[in-house]
Amino acid sequence: MTEVKSWTTRRDAKRERLAHAGSLLDGKFAQTEDVVALLEHLIKPGDKVVLEGDNQKQASFLSQALVRVDQARVHDLHMIMSSVSRPEHLDLFEKGIAKKLDFSFAGPQSTRISQMISDHKLEVGDIHTYLELFARLFIDLIPNVVLVAADKVDRDGNLYTGFNTEETPTIVEAAAFKDGIVIVQANEIVDKVPRVDIPADWVDVVIPADEPYQLEALFTRDPQNITELQILMGMMAIRGIYEKHNVQSVNHGIGFNTAAIELLLPTYGEKLGLKGKIVPNWELNPTPTLIPAIESGWVKSIHSFGGEVGMEKYIAARPDVFFVGPDGTMRSNRALGQVAGQYAVDMFIGSTLQIDQFGNSSTVTSGRLSGFGGAPNMGSNPTGRRHSTPAWQSLRPAGDPLGKGQKLVVQMVETFGANKKPVFVDHLDAEEVQKEAGLANVPVMIYSEDTTHIVTEEGIAYLYKTDSMAERKAAIEAIAGVTPMGLRSNAQQLADLRARGIVALPEDLGVKRGQAKRSLLAAQSLQDIVEWSKGLYNPPAKFRSWS
Amino acid sequence: MTEVKSWTTRRDAKRERLAHAGSLLDGKFAQTEDVVALLEHLIKPGDKVVLEGDNQKQASFLSQALVRVDQARVHDLHMIMSSVSRPEHLDLFEKGIAKKLDFSFAGPQSTRISQMISDHKLEVGDIHTYLELFARLFIDLIPNVVLVAADKVDRDGNLYTGFNTEETPTIVEAAAFKDGIVIVQANEIVDKVPRVDIPADWVDVVIPADEPYQLEALFTRDPQNITELQILMGMMAIRGIYEKHNVQSVNHGIGFNTAAIELLLPTYGEKLGLKGKIVPNWELNPTPTLIPAIESGWVKSIHSFGGEVGMEKYIAARPDVFFVGPDGTMRSNRALGQVAGQYAVDMFIGSTLQIDQFGNSSTVTSGRLSGFGGAPNMGSNPTGRRHSTPAWQSLRPAGDPLGKGQKLVVQMVETFGANKKPVFVDHLDAEEVQKEAGLANVPVMIYSEDTTHIVTEEGIAYLYKTDSMAERKAAIEAIAGVTPMGLRSNAQQLADLRARGIVALPEDLGVKRGQAKRSLLAAQSLQDIVEWSKGLYNPPAKFRSWS
């Protein structure tokens, strides 16, 4: 007797689970109050479960329900989450509902996650960039269940995610076409969605949430907190990098350093005659500090990973700049945005918490396992790139007939961090964290080999011009100020590095320190930005210091 | 008087064009016979136009129409095409309808495109990998018009692309959310599509095609053409790479070399006891030569860039393995597949036409500018990768505390090509082509720095173990056979390289040359594969040599 192999085990399991939950379902729709029972019927021990935690938008109704399931019925889950953001994301592990975690970013939970790993309460699969985590959903982390959030859902189950599309279509696709179960929490059930972001055919279960999904304004930086040191660094970056390399397309990391640059373009950049010459094309969350540059005509296009609270009306009124649908609302897309940030932009510029003597950097510090989100992806040189742009080509090494260009990867830091500790350190804390957490490799965010420039308040190190590790170290020391590492530099070394164009001080770039004043910013407060936006930008309450 | 700036120029232009074409449209639908007039109304001189040419599926009705427009009305287009496959794709440039081209692959048109560039009949923007071309659609190549192909379209304009989804959703998204015009040729208009692959909200114009879109079976390799040398190389690769490095996930390039490996897994691999131990997870077009391995239980999952003619029924019956929708048909996705092939697999293994003395390789040869498709993307080491797997980690250099793993990138070639010319050359023809075509860089497909292994009928060079360029050259010479490059190697050099594990000959791997017989293949013909598939695989007529 030959045993007949089944090729439909996933499909059969899905059908069985949905049948089991049948009494809780009216077509695809479930009742809000049945959410815990529903998850108990649809999720089995050991399942790979993708729980949508973008860094902004959270499937918070579903995560709060998942932590309430009966641990005797649902346990040992393998959670896959791009962002571990909410307390219950880790409560799942405390309660034994989940066992293993693959993730990308753990900003708000970075201390607790670090402790839980030390205490063996949580088994880490690995830390990823967003893009590689999404990629694995189609290869070796194929989900059994995905839990996602939508703004509006119509009676057929078509999803509208609007503005905050983020990663939802990508994670839904991985489940919908591999007999995974797609469960959606909806802010609202409507007769007709403004547009379809994800077709109903891809969706199994819709459940109205008790309250709208959590959404954080993570990319808003209030200009009133930008310091004159940051302005000085911004001026240097504009002259010594944007202008020098003819940068046309860029991704800015989150932070006050890059916010300063955004607010200097319409003032300082304009005086330099750079308008129309640099950075027309952006991959970026819609950060309010870019509004003055947009209004001044600096920006031709912005594609976004996600939305930003308060920017809805402004974006809707600027469809020439943003990706806006026929319905008048932006569509974001985290997977495609990360691909664009990796492969299609001239430059990534961001910040970090520590840089070591070789130029490796990390935001992982003692007791904090934050992950990196998209930074390693965008802050690396994709060696598969085959198209050329002037900025990329400007980093081509001389003398190699088979040479090619390189992406500009810029780290911009003050020599001492907010905690008064040196950013420049001989060894990254990440080296200790590797041991404590038992990681396969040191959690480096951006490697030295990918880092082409470092900007501090002292000057710019053009690392791509160095031709040995010793020279690279000297260049970093030269701009490391009065940190212990910086004190190793001496006048002769500095003079030599300046003469060879490996290090530039403000005066080498024609940047006057005395001009680095807050008055040089195109906006000095969020209220100024509201004015620039002609009242279209609507800051969240926590950022409103005025009536 | 202040001039009021418009922020809706793209939206207004789109509205105006669609209004202009209004007499040809009934809602979103146009008549087949009006296609040329329709394109003349909707496309303007200088537009960026994405014309869907996947390497398999072609928007052939629309491309044939575009070449018939009045050049006085539509001219100087900037064409963006992942694949230049059909004669009219280049006729557009001969006629002056188009002027500039950004592309990825030009297999069937590679000779003509090379000549046209020399004759200045065509201005090349650049040659890209698929993924970077898609990425630029969101940054600096935002389309005004996209022309795509769908299988079925319902009365609302929802698209079903089925099996051959490929790049359609990605290129449609770039236009639909930036006020570009999305024009779709449909094989069939139906009341209800089997599933929605692209929502109607994203689509502007649908036109029934006069005949179904062109579709080529590009990934089918008939086992009867696999040689014993290829079988020998396949055996070496299985022992010396797949087994040695514990490879779990892989992308195979197209060709008889990798087809041989696929057909050796259920025979040779089984004898070695490797079943269940290696390559459960694949990113791959659904190639028929993998059927015996699937049927033998080697393969847990396959995600695909596109479909393959004849594989429809087989895939539909194997949803545990392939990505199949609730409707029972596969969904492919070229953009996500390329991301997975870049970031989520242990190994890329493919072939090439030339390898230089340093290990750089290219398929661009004199007079042929073929482009590279996805090979440079998948055949490169993504330095942004942060997760670890045993295979990746096995290439980690010793002694560097901040070290990390590397993707396996394997080139597998016979020392002499089909044209009897050496594959191993001191200098790539691509160096000449760069000059002739005025390209910014030499069109290298895979750089030496990314290449970790080369397999020939002589042996395997473990390039990742070399620690100088001189040693790398010696390792390549040692496996380059009787090519002029290979003749530079000598017995002592070879003995030294073998002793240090940098080169392995068949005997070093326990591979017996005498076993490399066609009878070792799990299938020796496509007919055998049909049998393996239990009659579910249906080879295209051109591959049917029987009944």
Automatic annotation (TrEMBL), chains A, B:
InterPro entries: MadA (IPR005777), NagB/RpiA_transferase-like (IPR037171). Signal peptide: none annotated. GO terms for molecular function: transferase activity. This is Malonate decarboxylase subunit alpha. It comes from Ligilactobacillus saerimneri 30a.
